[in-house]
Each structure stands twice: as C-alpha cells, then as structure tokens.
Amino acid sequence: MKTLVSRNLPGFVYTVCITSAVAALDCVMGGLNFFLSLYISVRFRRRLTCYLHDRYLSTKQFYYRMTVSSNNVDNPDQRIQNDSAQVTVGLVTILCIIASAMLQISVYTCYVVMTVGWKGTAIIYIYYLITSIVNQTLMSPIVALTYNQDRLEGNFRFHHARVRTGAEAIAFTGGEEETKAALNQDFRRALRNQTAQIFRQSYLNLFTGFIGNGNAMLGYSVAALTVFTNPTFQNYSTADLAEAITQ
C-alpha cells in the first residue's frame, strides 16, 4: 500500500515478487504437509498392524481363545483392520496440529518481540494463559455431561427396546404402570442432564464471545503501550504510524 501511495514502481514490483514467493512457499508447504501426514500415517499403520498380528497369532491358543471363549475383546478383526487405521490417522493429525501450532507460536513470538517489545509479548501470553485456564474450567464439565447424556439416552432407548421385546410378558403380568414409571424415570434423568449441559454450554459460549471481543481490545492495548512508551514512534509521521499500528 505504501509503494502505491508513493508511486514507487520498483518498490511495488519488489513487494509483489516477495508476496508471490511467500504464497508459492505456502502452497508447497501445504501440499508437503498433506503428503507427509498421510505417508506417516500409512507407515504407522503398517507397524501397528504387524505388531497386532504378531501378538494375535503368537500362539495357537491365543486367537482361538479370544474369538471363541473370551468376551473381553469384541470383533478383533474390526479392531485390527479399522480401529488401528483410525488411531494412526488421528495420532498423525494431532502431531501435525501440535507441530504447526508450535511453529506458528514461535514465529509470532519473535515477530511481536521485535515489533512491540517484550512487555507487549508478556501481556499477550498472560492474557491467553488466563483465558485458557478459564476456558478449560468451563469446558471440562461439558465433556462429562456429553458422555453422560449419551449414556442416559442409550439407557432410555434400551428400555424402550425392552418394552417391544417383552410386550407379551408385560401384558400378561399387568406391568404397564411399572414399565411406564421406569421409562419416565429414565427420561427425566436424560432431560435433567441435558438441561445442565445447556447451561454449561451457554456459559462457555458467553465466555468465548468475551474472548473474541477481548482479542481486538488486546491488540489495540498492546499497540497503545508500544506507541506511548517507545520513543522511536515519536518521530513517525501520521501515515507511517498508522501503517505500523496496522501491522
């Protein structure tokens, strides 16, 4: 933008070349990240599946006892074929996200330190540390409530299935009232847990909205701290100062 305002054609061409090179590098890194994530997941799956095959077929009695006489592991063929693939893909995805996040945090930290100094960087880290702790505190009960909701809904549906399969016995014994009371009790438990989940999720959404608005305020606060405390910016013109703030 500055090169266009000043009608600096060589500077504009240089900026366009640098931007194009960065964009091309970003495309290459994105494609490389996609390829490596899938390739590493395939290698992990091969090692994990071979290890499971070695353990599964280590003795003549092991696979027979697991598939015939043991109920501890259901569908071992599905565990080896499907679950191992999902585990490796999920593990590689998490590792890629962590590596990308650590790289972005490192680069952003160096840039912020060089731009606004260590005070502004410390303020940013303290802000996100506090918000992360509060967010974790609000999110932890939601995870437990979500798991409990699935369990209660499963119990409610299971009791309805028992009514369908045991309809003849209920009719002969006159157990309609007991069955209805049990169904209503399961339903009330599910609704009670769902109501608590709604309240907890509302608190989290409210806090997330505050964080979203606080990010903008934090950026302006750090910029103001830098402008008012750094003597270098006193000699800047209005245009240069505006450009520095937007960066």
What do you see in this structure?
By secondary structure, the protein is an all-alpha fold. The relative contact order is 0.06. The model has no long low-confidence stretch (mean pLDDT 80). 90% of the residues lie in helices and 0% in strands. It has 7 helices and no strands.
Short description:
With 247 residues, the protein is an all-alpha fold.
Task: Annotate the secondary structure layout.
Elements: H1 2-5, H2 9-56, H3 60-69, H4 76-165, H5 167-173, H6 176-229, H7 238-246
What are the defining features of this structure?
247 residues; mainly alpha
Instruction: Write the H/E string, N to C.
Output: HHHHHHH
DSSP strand tally: 0
Low-confidence stretches: none
N/C terminus separation: 12 Å
Q: How many whole angstroms does the radius of gyration measure?
A: 30 Å
- Mean residue pLDDT: 80
The biggest beta sheet is recorded as: none
How big a fraction of the residues is strand? Answer: under 5%
Q: Portion of residues in helices?
A: over 70%
Shape: flat
Number of helices: 7
Question: Structural class given helices, strands, pairing?
Answer: mainly alpha
